[in-house]
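ZP: hey, is the NAI complex queued? I don't see it on the tracker
AM: it wasn't, my bad. submitting now with these inputs:
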Amino acid sequence: MPKNEKISKSVIRRLPRYYRFLGELLSEGVTRISSGGLAERMNVTASQIRQDLNCFGGFGQQGYGYVVADLRDEIGSILGVNEHNGAVLIGAGNLGRALAVHLDYGKYGCRLVGIFDENEGLAGIKLGDLTVMPMSELDSFCTKNKPTIAILCIPKSAAPEVCPRLAKLGVKAFWNFSHYDIVNLSDIEGVVVENVHLGDSLMALCYGLNNRSE
Ligand code: NAI
């Protein structure tokens, strides 16, 4: 399917979950599933699934359901999981090290190509297949390797200087753990930002805990 601007953001947000569940079904040998079956498995309504999947073409057939592999491939191609977008990780502290080592970037359409930290004492440390580089090498590295994604694992106070620098070096997408609000940075235009706040998710959990029905 061609890139479709009309798919709503809320549908796009749900696609990774479909992709994950369909992958699990495939690994269990399930080749075909009805919207009802998928709904039960995912704990959502069948009509939500039909509505979501109708946004990008009629994959299901009435009375036949969805071909799991085809649907997963289609969703994967919408999400771009077969792309090889180069990513640099900035900040090789506790969080940065965990993200560098524990995420299988290739599964998500991304390739971690460089890790940087301003603490020159960390330069040379091996994290997975990569070696931490000093920030003094960032410009030449980006000019040569042209990463389009930056994973920000730096303190909030460091981000206002680092973000525009990365944008000028061609970075177009920020996976932002820094708690800095990149949205308000007026000189970065045409970039996409995904802000991650694990604490928000924990607060939602605590809300659920405190407001659960007995
Ligand atoms: P950390 O202190 O272990 O690591 C931060 C690293 O960033 C250090 O190695 C430091 O040398 C480096 N750094 C600082 N300024 C830099 C700059 N200008 N350029 C390049 N590197 C720079 O901290 P930790 O625990 O890894 O957390 C990193 C950030 O992520 C913190 O600001 C923390 O608040 C935030 N965080 C966010 C979470 C989220 O859900 N969004 C979850 C956990 C942490």
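AM: back. The radius of gyration is 20 Å.
ZP: great, adding it to the tracker
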